[in-house]
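User: Study the chain.
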Amino acid sequence: MTRKVLIIVENSPVPADPRVWAEALALRRAGYQVSVICPGDSRRKLKWRETIEGVHIYRHWAPREGLGRFSYLVEYLAALPLEFALAVWVYLRRGFQVIQGCNPPDTIFLVAAPFKLLGVKYIFDHHDASPELYWAKYERRDFAYRIQVWLERLTYWFSDVVIATNESYRQLAIERGSRKPEQVFVVRNGPNLDRVKRLPLNPQWRKGKRFLVGYVGVMAEQDGLDLLVQTAAHFKRTGRLDTHFACVGAGPSLESLRERVRALGLADMVTFTGRLPDREMLEILSTADVCVNPDKPCEMNNISTMIKIMEYMALAKPIVQFESREGRVSAGESSLYADPRAGIQDFAEKIQWLLDHPKEREEMGALGRRRVDEKLAWKYSIPHLLAAYDRAFQRRGSKIAPPEAGAGETKTAADLEPVARESGTVEPSRAAAGRASSSC
């Protein structure tokens, strides 16, 4: 009998979401029938129903992205009934035995709840730690924060299997979510090397400057783009005018970031392109001399794995980011790590140091690409994803063998890089001896 699954993602359209789309294709190619429910995109006219590479996609209406808690509340409340209606439609038309809910928010289990009565299993694909994400955005532990904690706890309780993006999230599921270790599988955010390919340099993206600094990702409060704008201002203030910053992506903070660039007189140094097709995005990153991750230092970013880091590594680009636990596990010596306590000055100085040291840039980029080729590419995550689904499809009460080493968990620093995680200290990058800071 064909295994049939439904994936629900609320905060990103498909196939634009790289993780969800990679999961859907991996399952389809493994013989699953795959349906996906996701939001539409108000900026692009997408069909409400289409099939791409054998994956059946159903899109619902979604309000335009906004800032503030009220806009998120409207978005989530609008999504739930639409997701449920589409889930009923898919169940009647195609059927499914498993629902995979991709957070945020931690409310998708509510859509799955009625189907549990019909024997449908629920897989929680844990993309973001919602309580930490709320704190990163608003820095308050108010009633809304406590709701996030409560919803996360219910989601864990409701789940038959949990998919975590890294070992830090796996420990959350075990310790905070009281899930058994054999119920939790690590599926890392590895780059798909069929998609992320280096392209020829295009000097037009440098805007007449000697160097280009590249960024790709979401333009939201916790993603630190305001810090990158401050970094460009630091460059200008100190007379470093030979560098352009190109930032690719969309999000609720995009227009305010563009306005800030204009207000600071940085239009000749910073470009926010908005969302671009893959080819143009890859062309910018391929042209960049250094790629950056300015995520604000906080617990959310400390424990999260950013797919952009592995995409930079796949393109053999040296990286500058703030010190973080999972950032270190992913990038190892292909990155320099700024001291969060020093603010943007240390971040800016590390970018400048790399720009002035082409040999070290090349060495670090090669190290990153090798790590992707040998350990971090998406193809290494597929067996873990399929193992999680094998677990979900086991009949209730049946005995199954524990996952083999590496199937239900991903080795962390000891496997990916010799990093002393216990003490919170790390050896400085060989390419930046004496310049890397202690971890936060």
Summary: Residues 69-93 form the longest helix (25 residues).
